[in-house]
UniProtKB/TrEMBL annotation, chains A, B:
Single GO molecular function: 3'-5' exonuclease activity
UniProt protein name: Ribonuclease D
Domain 3'-5' exonuclease, chain residue ranges per copy: 1-170
GO process terms (BP): nucleobase-containing compound metabolic process
Alphabetized SUPFAM superfamilies for the sequence: Ribonuclease H-like
Amino acid sequence: MTVHFHEEDLPAGVLADGPVAVDTETMGLVTPRDRLCVVQISDGQGDEHLVRFAKGSNYDAPNLKAVLADPARVKIYHFARFDLAAIEHYLGVVAAPVFCTKIASKMTRTYTDRHGLKNLTEELLGESMSKQQQSSDWGAPTLNDAQREYAASDVRYLHRLREILIERLKREDRLELAEACYEFLPARARLDIAGWADKDIFSHE
Amino acid sequence: MTVHFHEEDLPAGVLADGPVAVDTETMGLVTPRDRLCVVQISDGQGDEHLVRFAKGSNYDAPNLKAVLADPARVKIYHFARFDLAAIEHYLGVVAAPVFCTKIASKMTRTYTDRHGLKNLTEELLGESMSKQQQSSDWGAPTLNDAQREYAASDVRYLHRLREILIERLKREDRLELAEACYEFLPARARLDIAGWADKDIFSHE
Ligand SMILES: Nc1ncnc2c1ncn2[C@@H]1O[C@H](COP(=O)(O)O)[C@@H](OP(=O)(O)O)[C@H]1O
Ligand SMILES: Nc1ncnc2c1ncn2[C@@H]1O[C@H](COP(=O)(O)O)[C@@H](OP(=O)(O)O)[C@H]1O
């Protein structure tokens, strides 16, 4: 289990085929304002890759973009909506097809309202995660060890969570409904970028 | 321009080909509790058809269901989410493909937060609608003239609104985004029936 650090792009050929776990770190929650600083990606075999973008980056990352845009690779996220928006806005690709562990959690763990990644990994995997670096300066010239470890841990458990959540979705007859949500997520992210971030477009009001 | 009243099903062959405007009247806003009382439907040629379901109805309405389920007919609604849920729950069909004038309004009339059907018909068509019968007893043994007129008026303007809203969506480059929302609407309605009516499944919380 190694955390690999890269600047401005993923090296070619470092990922096994199949679904990849993806997360992003940004300067904040307002996508068009808060630049994309790090993309984390893992093929679920034990290693995590961090791709760092410097201030002023042109986000010209052909290897990373090819993986993200690959229609044959499912991208596993926790709260995909946010990452899809950052990736589309800064990297210019729609990083689908999607599996979102937060939506799967909402649709199966109806006995709780705690759908944070930390809650999920604790309950479903018995692993504890530190969220201390969540609000940190991801735009700093160098990322410290705690930040790197935090960023890597955000993609470390997603493959295993997905397996369990797929079983739960099947058990509760909600896999199809979850998949309909996943299909809409790229459009939901585009609405966020376009200015509807604070609106539920489906609400009556 | 005639309002046609039918009990328990639409007669065969009364609608021209093409998109149909659809609305429903129910006993209230909680779909599994509040039974479907009336389905209104119009082909946009000037007539409106009201299909009335009595208390205890088995909702065995083959002609109406065939029109609603026809994948070649766009169904035009105002706030499709609610009607799709009532139709799926009581009639057992997914009444898609969808055009929703409320979503189109939200995505184009960004200069206002008034996206009610009355607001739309006034601004875009210069027609005024009475909303007096909106909260009335749609389960009564007979519907009075004011109710019939109200129910019919709810589908009367939808074809014309759709034409104008499609032009606006194109002008603002948002037609594709609106269509992504329309595709998700049947799943959004299924979530409502399944118990997520008060939740935005895409929210962080
Ligand atoms: N409105 C919001 N509130 C909190 N977190 C949000 C958010 N919008 C997006 N996020 C992102 O969602 C992730 C947190 O999800 P959760 O709380 O469910 O574990 C965070 O990602 P990171 O952990 O990568 O920073 C955070 O950046
Ligand atoms: N939460 C809600 N509040 C108000 N109206 C709602 C609603 N959920 C569904 N509706 C339906 O949405 C329609 C009103 O839309 P609008 O206010 O945009 O004109 C009404 O249909 P009817 O007019 O057929 O009764 C109403 O029944």
